[in-house]
Design brief:
single chain, 465 residues, alpha/beta, eight-stranded mixed beta sheet, 16 helices, 8 strands, globular
Length: 465
């Protein structure tokens, strides 16, 4: 029996170590290419027409802020069109309409588009908006974003290269210091935008539009087949289809767009679920054709790692279930074997995560050393959402369809703001109950570690607990 549990454990361990090594590799790749910033060879002599699309669904607390920010973008009025693509079924519609009418009176070219049926969710809204749009370029901002007035100053001119199909800017977060949860989310997203996006984009690998705070060329969207609603990550899907068609993407790490982070756990978990499931759906859809393509091997390998990265949560979940039985049969395993397993997981798995996010902070945060204190919480949160995200991965793998659940925001910009008592709060269901059971499970796992004298595992187990 001990050999059986050890075999399962080592199989999962090898996969997790592979994910850890990949993080080290991305960090190394970033270090080698970070000075290769995108070159702007020339600017538009005659500025093009741009349509700003604002997809909204039941966001009564932030839609007014979104419309105001979009209407403050510094760009010639006769070349700028703003579309409020509203699928809302609550008070959001009235607020959005009122704000649109207010700016219409100020001679802003802004249009309100409402759909009675939410067909295709966000992808459907963007597709319908594009059919009615005037612009040859599309800037997209979700309801929780606050586009900077100078967002087009540099970003748009990269399209003077006719091969560029999309330009993405980095996210920054107006409420990252609101709570421990928002601080950890900020660290997670900074790792993605600083290390992953920069490494991939500047080394010639594929990277993705993040659904917001980016600009698309209309011809690029059309040639790639348009917006599809068959995955929960329509942005990732279109990104890969466009790059497979030969379009170039540009990532501007030094250009930022402000956004609001989820401030309560159910919203955060819904967002993570959507991203995890959508990435697996996209992997199933895209990878067969990508693997058969004539792309360089290094690009294929990175694309596979990118699109399947969320399977790490499934491995993490399986690992958590196997720790107790492995320790229960510890007497049949050598001390050297146990020590090797825990130390390797600590330094290759946990160490890779810590190094990855610390390095990202070092690049953008002068007080980056203070983030060391958040690392145990960051790892705990990653393990804590493994149940939620494992369900997402399995649903994506087995083709289980589910609705696109947007992440509600509450206009939280400072510590004085509160989300309590506001609409949209969702009480989590059986997943939360199962997570509580796992907490109890790991309490007894820690007790067993003390009883068996496997003290080297205790810090690792406390993170799971």
């Amino acid at each position: 029996m001990s050999e059986f549990f050890l075999f399962l454990y080592l199989s999962v361990w090898i996969l997790l170590v592979t994910f850890g090594i990949h993080r080290y590799y991305l960090t190394f790749l970033y270090h080698t290419v970070k000075r290769k910033s995108p070159e702007l060879k020339k600017k538009f002599v005659h500025l093009p027409e741009v349509t700003v699309q604002l997809p909204v669904y039941n966001e009564m607390y932030v839609v007014k802020r979104l419309v105001q920010a979009a209407c403050s973008i510094d760009y010639p009025g006769h070349l700028l069109e703003i579309q409020v693509l509203d699928d809302s079924t609550d008070e959001t519609s009235a607020i959005a309409k009122e704000e649109v009418e207010k700016f219409k009176k100020k001679r802003v070219n802004i249009k309100y588009v409402h759909r009675n049926k939410r067909t295709g969710f966000k992808a459907g809204a963007l597709k319908e908006g594009m059919e009615k749009a005037e612009g040859e370029f599309f800037a997209i901002f979700d309801a929780d974003f606050i586009p900077h007035p100078a967002i087009f100053t540099k970003a748009l001119h990269h399209f003077t290269d006719p091969e560029v199909g999309m330009v993405q800017v980095r996210w920054e977060h107006i409420n990252k210091n609101y709570s421990v949860l928002t601080r950890i989310q900020s660290l997670l997203l900074d790792g993605h935008f600083v290390i992953e996006h920069t490494a991939r984009s500047r080394s010639g690998r594929f990277f993705n539009f993040n659904g917001t705070a980016g600009i698309w060329r209309k011809k690029c969207i059309e040639s790639a087949g348009g917006w599809h609603a068959d995955t929960l990550t329509e942005d990732l899907d279109l990104s890969y289809r466009a790059q497979l068609k030969g379009w170039k993407f540009v990532y501007l790490m030094d250009e930022v767009s402000s956004a609001e982070l989820p401030v309560e756990m159910s919203a955060f978990k819904n967002q993570q679920f959507r991203w995890a499931k959508g990435s697996i759906q996209t992997a199933k859809k895209i990878l067969p054709g990508l693997i058969r393509s004539r792309l360089p091997l290094k690009l294929k390998i990175e694309a596979i790692a990118h699109l399947t990265g969320n399977t790490a949560y499934l491995c993490l979940f399986l690992l958590s279930l196997l720790i107790y039985p492995l320790m229960a049969v510890k007497s049949n395993l050598s001390w050297l074997a146990m020590r090797t397993i825990y130390i390797s997981l600590l330094f290759i798995g946990t160490g890779a995560v810590s190094f990855f996010y610390l390095y990202a902070q070092k690049e953008i945060n002068p007080s980056w050393k203070s983030t060391i204190l958040y690392l145990p919480v960051l790892m705990s949160l990653g393990i804590g959402i493994s149940v939620n995200n494992t369900r997402a991965v399995l649903e994506g793998l087995f083709g289980y369809n589910s609705a696109f659940k947007r992440t509600p925001k509450y206009h939280i910009e400072s510590k004085e703001d509160t989300w309590k008592g506001k609409k949209y709060f969702e009480v989590m269901g059986f997943i939360t109950f199962f997570e509580l059971l796992l907490g109890i499970y790991f309490f007894f796992t820690v007790l067993l570690a003390f009883k068996r004298g496997i003290f080297i595992s205790v810090p690792f187990l406390f993170i799971f607990l």
